[in-house]
Structure formats: structure tokens, C-alpha cells
Amino acid sequence: GWHRFTFDFAGWLQSMKFAPALTAALLMIGFAVGVLTTWQVAQRPGQKTDLTTTTVVPPVDSAAIATIRGITQDPGSDQVKIQYDKVLSDQAQGSINDPKIQQLLLFAARNNINSGLRLDSVDLLAKSPDDSRVREALIFALHFDHNPGVRLKALDGLRSYVKDDQKVRDAVVGALLQDPNPGVRTQAISLLESVKNDSSVRQAFASLAQGDKDKYIQEESKRMLSNLPDFE
Fold first, then answer.
1. For domain 99-225, which architecture applies?
2. Cβ contacts of 17 within 8 Å, gap of 6 or more
């Protein structure tokens, strides 16, 4: 009956203990079949034949690179990781009252390395509607911009706020006392003429009238004080 063909697997394994050569041969045959199967799968249409892990890096336009932030090499390999920031060129167009336009102008007034662009941005900000951020940007330019032309534009933009804004008035007084450019100081005097009765302004003029390295500034300060009741 069919039991004559029953395979005694346990008995077969027991006998394999005494046939090492046969065992090795069977293992080699099994390994060869596995390799052949893997090769056939890899050669099927539509599948990759390259089993390496090398990453193909697309070309990078050097003009689009703003800065390199980090370089790391994987230990024991030729793989390198480079972190970099890209520069993307864009433009915006709109009314000077547009919030995005004002945001870009405020950024340019504070951060641009091109003094001509800072001058243009401050000039436009000076013509824009009253806004606390605009005043702060103009005060910042007056105090910290290295270009005297930009500082003069900032003074022009602050002119209409001197009477009513103490912070603006203090900034202009600071420019009068400390700015290294005579033109900026002279412009500051013209802005402060309408508020020369203010105690802080009068005190600044009095100090300069007593002695200043710039004789013109000294004489203008005396002139500002000459019509005041308590001027001696």
C-alpha cells in the first residue's frame, strides 16, 4: 500500500550524521539554487540590476548657494553629507501701503549691505503712512547707519513727528549731540527749532553754545537760544 512510500524524516536525519560528505554537497546545492533564484529575480524587466547603495547626487548650481552650514563624512566610507542654504530670487510689486511691500522696505532699511538700497528704502519709508514700525526703522537708521545720506533721509522722515513724539525728539537730539557728520547735525538743528522750548532740547543747545568743536554748530545753537526768555 501507500505506506511503503512513507518517508522516515527522523531516520534520514539520523543517518546524515554519518555522511558528512553528502551533507556538505546538499548544502552547496541549496546555496547554488538560492543564488540562481536571486539572479533571476534581479534580471526581471522593470527591476533594478544595480544592488549597490551609492546615491546619485544631482548637480548643484553654485549661484544658488547662500552658505555651507556643515560637512560630515561617514566613517569608513566615501560618503559625505553637506548641509547648505539656497538663495531663491523673487520679487514683489505693489503699493507702498501694501504690508508685504512695507515689510520688505523695513528689512532693507536695517539689513541690506548695499547703502544705495538702504537709502532708497528709507526714502520710501519716509513717504509712507504713519506707522510705529516705520518710525522705529527711521530712528534705527538715524542712530546706526554708517551712511550719512541714509541718516539725512531718516531725519527727513522723522520731521513731522518731532513735535508730538518724545522718542523721536530724543533721537534727533542724540543725532545733534553725537553724529560725526556736520550735515546731519545741522539738519537736526532745523528739526528741533520748532520745539526749542522743550527742556531737553534747550539743554542740548545750551551745552553746544558753550563750546563745540564745530563753530557753525556752536553759533547756530546760540541763535536758537537767543530768543528764549531765560537765555543768558
1. Alpha Horseshoe (1.25)
2. none
